[in-house]
Amino acid sequence: MSVTEERSELRDRSLVDLQRDLQAAREELFQNRVRYATLALDNPEPLRKGRKRIARIMTYIRQRELEEGA
């Protein structure tokens, strides 16, 4: 999935769905960190992508919170 497809998908999700996605992304990042530390993961790219995905999700969550407050 490209970044633009991911952004449009996240934009259409509800706040509850975004929070579930955030939890899943954090768990996936944790598992990738463990794999990288135990040398089962050779490439650190999933770590960078995971952090960026979490940041994107948190951005959309914050936008929804600001929309609800306005």
- The dominant shape is elongated
Which blocks of ≥5 consecutive residues have pLDDT under 50? none
Sheet having the most strands: none
By CATH reckoning, the class would read Mainly Alpha
Helix content: over 70%
SSE order, as H and E? HHH
Fold and architecture overview:
The protein has helices at about 5-10, 15-35, 45-70. The radius of gyration is 14 Å and the shape is elongated. α2 packs antiparallel against α3. It starts with a helix and ends with a helix. The longest helix is centred in the last third of the chain and has 25 residues, at about 45-70. With about 70 residues, it is mainly α. It has 3 helices and no strands. The protein has one domain (about 5-70): Orthogonal Bundle (Helix Hairpins), CATH 1.10.287.
List the helices and strands and how they pair.
Blueprint: H1 3-11, H2 15-37, H3 45-69
Helix pairs in contact: 2-3
Fill in the keyword field for this structure:
single chain, 70 residues, mainly alpha, Helix Hairpins, 3 helices, 81% helix, 0% strand, elongated
Summarize the structure.
This protein is mainly alpha-helical.
